[in-house]
Amino acid sequence: MPSTTERPPPSFDVGDVIDRKVRVARVVLARADGSLLATATDADGSGCEGTAPHFYVTVTPGGELIEATDGSGLLYAGYPTASPGRTQVLDVSGCEGFLGAVKIYPVEDDLTLGQPIPVDIEGAVSGDASWTSDGFVSLYLADGSPFLDPEDDSITVAEYLVNPRTGERTQSAELDQLRWGAVRLADGRLIYNGASETGAVVAVEQREGSIEASYAAADFAISPDVTSMLVWDSVFDTGADISIDLVDLETGEVRQIAAGSAFRAVWSRNSERVAFSNGLETYVHDLPSGDTITVGAGRPEGCEEDEWVVWGRVPLAFAPSGDLYVGDAVCGESTEGFPYDEFALYQVTLVAPPS
Asked: What is the pTM of this model?
């Protein structure tokens, strides 16, 4: 009989799984004391295309959810992302490819948001913005919409570097088309979501515009130390070769972390662990050891069976302590049938296995 080699137990395991007893849509940033800045779903509101909009909330260490207001009502959120230093939040709002507003919020000690710093987008029809790896904001403004006419080559796109303290912008480049989800690295490379004749791609573009690399993937996430990125295809894609891969941004080397479809992926603060989901279960992969464990599937509330959608548990964010926040899908009228618009929040501790 062929010999077999037993794989040693993983170098880490799941410890406590704490029900935070709140529902959120997205975790924007997590503090060491267990407090969170997040967004929740306004079931009574009407956002883009009639969907329920998100608004900002804070979650206290004790599990109290506090709604953020702007003096006249709920403080609504577009697509918020925390700065590399976790001291500011960039909020980009828009609908169906048209840009609404770009704001930068300072984050106070109690995780409330200070007065927003507006970023000038006057004259832009569409656009996007993102944090650079060194804490500035890259702003992309187009005078037309590629969604209305993708073949219209008369659309001009200007790239600006924005001072996050003042909102002042300085034009840094002109692009031949709008790049969605684009992140400008300190070395000048641009990483963004694109498309090819065969489907979605993640592209790495040199400063002068040449394509350095292209990956058949629907999304990406760059590590906090900006040495690696994850690329993955969508859980809704039925292709046979879907996987989540790790790309070394210095050498271009690609290593598969897991085969099978992926839904979402997040990095730990120290860039040593990644959490990802196939839509049903959430997994954590430890880069130094190469070990992968599962933190389990969720128990979705009010979700009916659907052959096209997998409803379960997805990763939301890592805490500074290394704990992982996961969300279990909550379905119902408040989400207009979209299971991943609201989550029951759990905090998962990751510990060394018992000796």
From this structure: 0.91
